[in-house]
Design a protein that fits this description.
By secondary structure, this protein is α/β, with parallel strands linked by helices. The chain has 3 domains: about 1-115, Methylthiotransferase, N-terminal domain (Rossmann fold); about 135-365, tm_1862 like domain (pyruvate-formate lyase- activating enzyme, Alpha-Beta Horseshoe), CATH 3.80.30; about 365-430, Beta Barrel (OB fold (Dihydrolipoamide Acetyltransferase, E2P)), CATH 2.40.50. The chain is built from 14 helices and 18 strands. It has helices spanning about 10-25, 50-65, 80-85, 85-90, 105-115, 155, 165-175, 195-200, 205-210, 230-240, 255-260, 265-280, 300-310, 340-365, and strands spanning about 1-5, 30, 40-45, 75-80, 95-100, 135-140, 140, 160, 180-185, 215-220, 245, 285-290, 315-320, 370-375, 380-385, 400, 410-420, 425-430. The strands form 5 sheets. Strands 2-1-3-4-5 form a 5-stranded parallel beta sheet, sandwiched between helices. Helix 1 (about 10-25) links the parallel strand 1 and strand 2. Helix 7 packs parallel to helix 9, helix 9 runs parallel beside helix 10 and helix 13 packs parallel to helix 14 (about 340-365). The structure holds iron/sulfur cluster.
Amino acid sequence: MKVGFISLGCAKNLVDSENIIGLFEDPFFEYEYDLKQCEVILINTCGFILSAKEEAIDTILEIAEYKKDNLKKLIVTGCFVQRYLKECREEFPEVDLFVPIEDYPKLPELLSDLFGHRFLHTYGKNRKLANSSYTAYLKISDGCDNRCSYCAIPLIRGNCRSHPIEDNVAQAGQLLDSGVKELNVVAQDTTYYGHDLYGHFALKDLIRELDKLPFTWIRILYMYPDEIEEDLLQQMARCKRVLPYFDIPIQYGNDEILKLMNRRGSVQLIKDKIALIRKYFKDAYIRTTLIVGFPHETDQTFEDTLKLVEEVGFDSLGAFTYSPEEDTKAYDMDGQIEEEVKQERYEKLMALQQEIVRKKNESRVGRTYTALIERYESLFDRYVARSYMSAPDGIDGIIYVKSDEELKIGEFYEVEINGYQNYDLLGIMKKKR
Ligand code: SF4
């Protein structure tokens, strides 16, 4: 049977999708990219905010239409199913099997029953990369022990369960053997890693071990500001392969709102941590995420946030307008903000960030960076590449590279920056790395 996959949501969900794809490695199935040709389609959903839920519903409805043609079995998994299993079963009769996250270990049996064919692989033991062979995510833990008042993730994914260091290193080794050159370490909160298992933050111990494997780049995502301790930075500085890339969602720039969000730390602590990072890494690339329009936000608290953004000068910034999620603490808070106001503030924040990035990009002209080639765009006759300054999740700016000679996808080259365009850089290939 021809089988196709759709993975919605974040990198953590993508790792789950890749573990599910591996279950279908069997002569009975054949992977097919053209979904219209597929007899089996599996959608791995996200469901943590309104836009993600809407995307999940739209995708299920759109794919269910394929049942009029080739599609015989439609399977839906992921956060949206975990959160709304009962409603899913009622609303989508076209779906043949719903699998919530907690049932993933039972997937081989559930699929065997559905297809009347025995699935032999164990979930999590035969991961197959979905997109490229040279970059992959390493999910070092599941769930989250924090209780940010706006966030539904702990309700969906449960408390933090760190995978032992040796398991993570073994998984990284397999990825390396399969050709991965860039390893991206992910979790809901990577800096919390190990606390549930070892009684202390163990990210520094893990990266010390990962750094022994000959990847070209190791990148750490999703760090919680107050858990970035000096000994972690010292370990990162000692590592040969760990990039000076810091993805630190700060969420807001005013202490009262941070408290309402149930975030630990203060604006001053955020500033101190960023100063500490810059003390150790002159070229630190710092990315953050912010929420605009949280309950009780005022013009003043929003101005405080803009002030912090300007003062810190984040290299990359993603923002969401606050989406009230049922069963979270913030859902029932009074002082909810009108959508129009949220949108206006969002646009103001992003306009400020665009100006910050423009100045940063200007300062990068003339510099040379190692860049990983991702694809060729014939329309512009340029290659699309990422330096240490962009994670593979499409949030950061990229480099459009001009080259007289043909470049290899998945290889590293030295690229000199000779211009910029909005959030992106323009460059010329100088030599292979
Ligand atoms: S750290 Fe906060 S925002 Fe992130 S997953 Fe955990 S509870 Fe949600």
